[in-house]
Design a protein that fits this description.
59% of the residues lie in helices and 13% in strands. The protein has seven helices and six strands.
Length: 320
């Protein structure tokens, strides 16, 4: 009986010591461990490959792990993923979360996009339930990686189907025959070009010579233009100066003529208003005098000079 009681006592003491050692180890681990922060992420996409304990990275650096995954009851379209991150991870405003898949089937949560100088993502004091519905800060999401490909898979399949239908319509028997004809014509054209190879080479050589001659002609034209500019600058300048002097002299003569016309204008007015009417009257008087002289000459011619003094004789009257 005493031996059995001693064994029970020793066993009890050993169990107590082991329990104390375990408690001390856990206390030391908590004391020496780093504090972690929890965040909620609401994904509106499939989280296939993501499981509890999956790793969380921040710009490729291990930052924590996934604590739990569940559907969000208010809106089952969203999947709530709660992650636990190290205390020193800078989860600032602008940080976004994406699901990075892999060919092995496992997925990870990737965080990036933190903006320098922005405050950390926290739950505000006035209304925490509006921004943090489950009491934890929420990290926004963005579609990326395989998730973006999977989300756009229906559109890609539809476009591939449309493209396949168009290719099928384009590769009909009629179009295939047309394409075969085009290829035959292309082969003939290639053969003709190959046969005309020497002629094409000679044409290219002549073209090069023509281009060289055109370059020389352009150079000569440039030199001629420079010579013309020199002639215009040296020889034509005196002529232009003489022409300018002649223009000035002509201008002075025109001014003098204008002055003379201005001075003669009163005399011309008097001549037109007085002298010309008098000349007209004189011309009329001369016409009258001329007519009278013509009459006198006619009388002298018919009756002699006496006809100007005496009266004209009446003709003798003879009775029957």
């Amino acid at each position: 009986m005493e031996t059995r009681s001693n064994h029970v006592l020793v066993g009890a003491v050993v169990l107590i010591l082991l329990a104390m050692l375990a408690i001390f180890t856990v206390w030391i681990a908590r004391f020496g461990g780093t504090e972690e922060h929890e965040y909620d992420i609401f994904f509106r996409q499939s989280v296939d490959g993501l499981a509890t304990g999956s790793s969380v990275t921040f710009s490729g650096v291990p930052a924590g792990q996934v604590k739990s995954i569940s559907l969000w009851q208010p809106d089952p379209q969203y999947v709530r993923v709660r992650v636990s991150l190290k205390q020193d991870i800078p989860v600032l405003r602008g940080t976004t979360a994406t699901i990075q898949g892999s060919f092995t089937g496992t997925s990870t949560v990737s965080l990036d996009g933190a903006v320098k100088g922005q405050p950390p993502i926290t739950c505000p004091d006035p209304d925490p339930n509006k921004v943090c519905p489950l009491g934890k800060p929420v990290i926004p999401t963005k579609t990326g990686g395989l998730g973006a490909i999977l989300n756009s898979a229906p559109q890609l399949l539809e476009r591939l189907s449309t493209l396949t239908e168009r290719l099928t319509g384009m590769l009909s028997d009629r179009n295939q025959a047309s394409i075969a004809g085009i290829l035959d014509n292309t082969n003939r054209l290639s053969a003709a070009l190959a046969d005309r190879g020497p002629e094409i080479a000679a044409t290219l050589a002549q073209t090069r010579v023509a281009i060289a001659q055109a370059g020389n002609a352009a150079q000569q034209i440039g030199e001629l233009a420079q010579t013309t500019n020199g002639v215009l600058a040296n020889d034509i300048q005196p002529t232009i100066q003489n022409l300018n002097g002649a223009i000035k002299s002509a201008q002075a003569s025109a001014d003098t003529l204008n002055s003379a016309i201005g001075d003669a204008r009163p005399g011309l007015t008097t001549f037109s208003k007085q002298t010309i009417p008098q000349i007209n009257q004189l011309v009329r008087d001369l016409r009258v005098t001329s007519a009278s002289l013509a009459t006198i000459a006619e009388r002298v011619e018919q009756g002699g000079a006496s006809s100007l003094i005496g009266q004209q004789k009446l003709p003798d009257y003879k009775g029957k």
